[in-house]
Amino acid sequence: MTNKVVSIAAAGILAATAAPAQAQFAKPEDAIKYRQAAFALIGNHMGRINGQLKSNAPNVQVIQSSAALIETLSKLPFEAFIAGSESGGNPPTRAKPEIFKDAAKVKSLAEKMQAEVAKLAATAKGGDINAIRAQFGEVGKSCKACHDDYRRD
Ligand code: HEC
Predict the structure, then answer these.
(1) What atom of ligand 1 comes closest to residue 81's alpha carbon?
(2) What mean pLDDT comes out for the span 42-47?
(3) CB distance 32 to 77 below 8 Å
(4) Mean pLDDT rounded to a whole number for the chain
């Protein structure tokens, strides 16, 4: 790596950590796409875990790997609910306008989901399918709790 590349990379890291969330997205559409993409990946990996839990011979490694990914992905969507992204998007955002107003409630729902997801990842490492199934149910409830109030059908 040349020095120039190194300093550009360093500047990128600084921008990513220091800039306000708003500056991470060139336009509101980008923020909508970002959060939809993050949720779509979370949903995909929840589906993979569900598939394993329904099978006669669940593959614990698949569950562990998806749970670990969901733990990381669960941190992503919420910085993208920026002012100006209340409507628009392609497909159109399903976020209800209230999610941009009820900051404290939304934060607590997001943190609850992240905590349940972290517990799922930890439980998956233990490999006990019944315990994983129970915790998977808790994660599902924490998703639904937010969707009921803040996502359109
Ligand atoms: C704090 C609120 C909140 C929590 C918690 C939450 N979601 Fe969502 N989710 C939303 C909102 C709002 C949208 C709509 C985003 C948009 O269209 O801009 C959404 C969209 C989605 C979508 C559709 C993505 C797409 O393709 O557009 C999926 C799938 C999804 N969520 C899955 C989950 C799962 C699984 C969990 C739990 C592990 C979860 N969500 C937790 C608020 C939440």
Answers:
(1) 18
(2) 98
(3) no
(4) 91
130-152 per-position pLDDT tens digit: 999 999 999 999 999 999 999 99
Report how far ligand 1's centroid is from the alpha carbon of 115 (Å): 16
Tell me which of 136 and 17 has the higher pLDDT. 136
| Domain 25-150, CATH homologous superfamily name and number | Cytochrome c/b562 (1.20.120.10)
Residue 45, amino acid: H
Closest to 28 measured CA to CA, from 80, 71, 64, 98: 80
The binding-site residues of ligand 1, defined as CB within 6 angstroms of any ligand atom, are: 32, 35-36, 39-40, 42-43, 46, 93-95, 99, 106, 109-110, 113, 117, 139, 142-143, 146-147, 150-151
Buried b (16+ CB within 10 A) or exposed e, 48-76: bbeebeeeeebebebbbbbbbbbbebbee
Dist CA 48 CA 14 (whole Å): 35
CA-to-CA distance for 7 and 11, rounded, in angstroms? 6
C-beta separation of 79 from 21 below 8 A? yes
- Judged against a pLDDT cut of 70, whether residue 35 lies above it is answered with yes
Rounded to the nearest angstrom, the distance between the alpha carbon of 111 and the centre of ligand 1 is 14
